[in-house]
Amino acid sequence: MGRKVRDFIVINLGIAMVALGMYFFLMPNNLATGGANGLAIVINSFIPALSVGILMIIINLVLFIVAFLAIGKNFGIKTIYSSLGVSFMILILEKIIPIQKSITGELFLELIFGIIISGGGMAIVFNENASTGGTDIIAKILNKFFHINLGKAVLLADLSITVMAGFAFGPRLSMFSMLGVIINGFIIDSIIEGLNMNKQVTIISSKYEEVRKYIIEELEKSSTIYEAIGGFSDENKKVIVSIMGRREFIRLKNFINTIDQDAFVTVNNIYEVFGNGFGSFTH
């Protein structure tokens, strides 16, 4: 129950960030940076009677129906909730805080802020095994029927929308939208890596037993012990390997420093870990 509440809160935080980034920075500048929102911005330019929020709901509903018929239920309830959540939040913002023009008049500045905020929200949603819909559903359909790699399919779908933006708003905004798509990809990847980053620590210490006990009893982490022979000293040594979060690593480093300043420690960043107390394969 606690896990479900936590997932619900985190997904809603991501949804809010996506909606706020799009509504306050991308939409006023007609920056169609892919997804259902980008397509809605383009369509809105030809049919202004339909708001972007309404169009996003229509686009996502159509895509859900197509996805159910074409690829089944594989994209999951979280994706339906997240994509409709973004659409409804933008619709509400249009009603209570109508925006007619750019906040600062600085196109590039607002592109960067919009992409950072909305891309950060997308990363949070993706990290919860969901998505904000739109382009992702198109990408899955392209992947199934045309065997196009999912990453390439997402990029192809997003770039297609930016090309449409060129017809609606001219080449300048189309090129800014393309730039936004590219930056968005880097931001999402970087944030997801940061959210999931752990430390793989390898330790060779004369105080090996104390270190092992500290990892298990104080940090409540497991470890693997290897038998090794020193290449220079030709002595038998025990090597401890453990994976932990950044906070636990700082505590471990300070502990090792107090008991054995001659310990040999190497550290690697690990971005995905499954099983044994870490993430599940299905989450």
From TrEMBL:
<feature type="transmembrane region" description="Helical">
    <location>
        <begin position="46"/>
        <end position="72"/>
    </location>
</feature>
<feature type="transmembrane region" description="Helical">
    <location>
        <begin position="7"/>
        <end position="26"/>
    </location>
</feature>
<feature type="transmembrane region" description="Helical">
    <location>
        <begin position="146"/>
        <end position="169"/>
    </location>
</feature>
<keyword id="KW-0472">Membrane</keyword>
<feature type="domain" description="DUF2179">
    <location>
        <begin position="223"/>
        <end position="275"/>
    </location>
</feature>
<dbReference type="Pfam" id="PF10035">
    <property type="entry name" value="DUF2179"/>
</dbReference>
<dbReference type="InterPro" id="IPR019264">
    <property type="entry name" value="DUF2179"/>
</dbReference>
<dbReference type="Pfam" id="PF02588">
    <property type="entry name" value="YitT_membrane"/>
</dbReference>
<keyword id="KW-0812">Transmembrane</keyword>
<feature type="transmembrane region" description="Helical">
    <location>
        <begin position="79"/>
        <end position="97"/>
    </location>
</feature>
<feature type="transmembrane region" description="Helical">
    <location>
        <begin position="175"/>
        <end position="192"/>
    </location>
</feature>
<feature type="transmembrane region" description="Helical">
    <location>
        <begin position="103"/>
        <end position="126"/>
    </location>
</feature>
<dbReference type="InterPro" id="IPR003740">
    <property type="entry name" value="YitT"/>
</dbReference>
<keyword id="KW-1003">Cell membrane</keyword>
<keyword id="KW-1133">Transmembrane helix</keyword>
<protein>
    <submittedName>
        <fullName>YitT family protein</fullName>
    </submittedName>
</protein>
<dbReference type="InterPro" id="IPR051461">
    <property type="entry name" value="UPF0750_membrane"/>
</dbReference>
